[in-house]
Input
Amino acid sequence: MKLSMEHLTKIEGHANLNLEINEDKVEKVEMNIFESSRFFESIVLGKHFSRVWELTSRICGICSVSHCLASIMALENGMNVNVSDQTVTLRKLLTYGEFIQSHLVHSHFNSLPAYLKTGGIIELASKDKTLVRNALKIKEAGNEIIKAIGGRAVHPLACTIGGFSKFPDKKSIENLKTVLKGVKPLALESLEKFSKLDYESFNLDKDHFCLVNRDYTLLSGVSKSLKTPLVFGNEEFEKVIKEKKRSYSTAKFAEIDSKPFMVGALPRVNINGKRLSESVKPYVFPVSFNPFLNDYAQVIELVHCIDESLNLLENLDVKEEKVRFKPRAGIGFSATEAPRGTLFHKYKINGKGIVTNANIITPTAQNLPVIESAVREYLPNIMHLKKEEIVKKLESLIRAFDPCISCSTHFLRIKGL
Amino acid sequence: MKLKAGVYTLTSCQGCQLNILNLGDELLDVLDYVSFERFPWINEKNSDGPFDIVFIDGSVSNAEEEKTLKNARTSSKILVALGNCACHGGVQLGKNFLSDTVKVENLRPRNVRPVSDFVKVDYFLYGCPMIPAEFVNLINCIKSGREFRQKTFPVCFECARNNNDCLLLNNEFCMGPITRGGCNSVCLNNNNPCDGCRGVFDDANMKSFLNLLKNKNFKPADIQSLMSFYGGLGL
Output
């Protein structure tokens, strides 16, 4: 049997899945990513470092905060720029805002409708307007954080090397507290709902990776494996993570030790679960290798991000800080947790402040091989079903990884520079 | 009767589609009037038309996208270009300038072009990303039969009203004088220059602007680089 699922729906971007099955044996599984490459790593070459994050945030509208901060932090690393505690706090808040809005879209708009046997959030809105209205309110709270600190909801403006170009006033901080307190009960209600969904059971025996730090880190840290003692710093990411091209895809596929691995909410909850906020602790599950639980892990993180935002805002008295640093030549690395997993950026800057080399590894590039493995290993469990059922189940399996195709097609390795 | 609508993704970051979902409660009002028969990011079932209105997010960067766009045009009465990618080509337009200077493994960068290079566009919603309020305004105009009008003033107009300091007076680069307003000078309000993401407004005096930059001793190569960050400036 040959099965080609074209234009998978309810994921970010365009992807096909091509399968070949001979007498119950899975011969071929290919995630065919056909979105056009956008060559970001080469467009950035020759540009002044101060233009980098405005460009890289356009890799992805949904995780523009992550790309923006990953660029800035890598450049700071390369030019040896230190930032204040206040800057770290404001960046954490931006990250929490992005997680709230991105996780909400994926868990509630992309995944939940199938569990509730509807075709999508629009159909759901005609059946249960309150549910959709509450989801939109939670999403709006995430956007409010990004707007207050970053200047607008999509493609933030106030972030810069060394800190911020604009600071939120007291009124907007107070407003954020009110908004977040208002949506906290709604988010807890959602978490309760997600804790009771009927998730498929499936054990995918592949390693998990995420950043670790003192807190439940989303902004920065070092990468850690769940199954092995492997820990690696940002400056080692190119040595550890090997990206490969596949003939059928415009996105790259990443492996560690020639093996697929998973990044994202489930690995983070598995590795850092004990650092989550008190109100989500009752929902944290024992270490699991079931990718279907990634949706649930996202909603756990969503509530955690509301808690942590309120926590940071409580003691926040924002003071205007002038950014001072001396540009210099160097190579800089960064790693940050984007909603879909760890995001790595690297830049080389010359003495004139011009970018001469760039490398970006996105979460989806890391998850594509493990998505193929998941499909391959899951297929025997569902082979007895009707074709339409198989397609549905495979789609929800792939969707559970929250692939972001815009992100994954940002690349192309360039020779000769 | 609801408007039958379709959303098409070409090459983009999907930030403009996110801004549709970012409408909050207003999205529910929009849904009372617009039925999204195609919106693959959030719909399981997606129609190929016929539509009353289609929204194109992204620029055209391969033959498949060109075909998709042309099919979208024939299937719909109204076609709307969403954001800088669709209206002007987007930041990925930068890859048009790569082929001479860099060698690319196996692939050659194809030219990136805006939607209007291939099909008739009825409405442009400018900006990177497009502005949610303009999206709602367009829907309301269509609903009530009013004419949708583009802003005919530059970003400077709103910037001055917002009491921002003028960057050009301070000899810093800014494209406010030639760029279409309507963004409430959001970049300037956050102490960033205007980079022209909404394109040149109709009565812009480009010649005088370029003279101004020259008199302020900006180098031609820097002007070229700064002004071609987003598409839409005819450089």
